[in-house]
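Request: When convenient, would you put together a sequence paired with its structure tokens?
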Amino acid sequence: MAIVAAMSAPLPAVAQTARELLTQAAFQDRSQSAALARVDRARALALAAVQRMPDDQDAAVIAAGALAYRAKLTGSRAEAIEARKQLQAVATRFPRNAEAQIGLGGWHLGVIAKVGRIVGRAMAGAQKGAGLAATDRAVTLGGNRAFFAGLAGLLRIEADPADPRGRVLLDQATQAPTPTVLDRIIQRNAGAVLTSLKQGDAKTARALADRLLPFGWYDDQ
């Protein structure tokens, strides 16, 4: 969507790292095939890094996250379930890794947003409580960065625009440091949703949260 493109910082035309590939696919691509190719490339790079260095936390988390993104793009229930298992595994192995926690929380809440709590739990094991708990852990572990507070807030508002914790997290994100491209993207997106909430427009806030989360451009097609 144009609104996402306008609010997202431009990325290099050719991404060099797995993280850059995922960022471009999640926030800038508008073609399923292009995004899927980028996600698959990111996962391949991350898995290769894990083979070289089994204790590489970043690579392990990115590989699991890339599978979750792939499942989102393909709609594959089997891939979604496998992604949950891999995200849970890295979150358990690296319990103080904030990205593992936000990935796991985002998986649970994202599935529920897509198909609902009952279907999400029955078909893929998604649980709202587990999702909220994991995102809260990510905010605690992630330090004062806009990315973690902003993403957690967007996920909460997508689920319930009246969630007071979500609004607090969005406000926190708009004032937090932005050391990376992802931080800057999420800070801007958090600010847009927070503006709608302050205007009392819960419907727009929820719709914006959905569009401004990773791959919101794909959900809107």
Residues 1-15 have pLDDT under 50 and may be disordered.
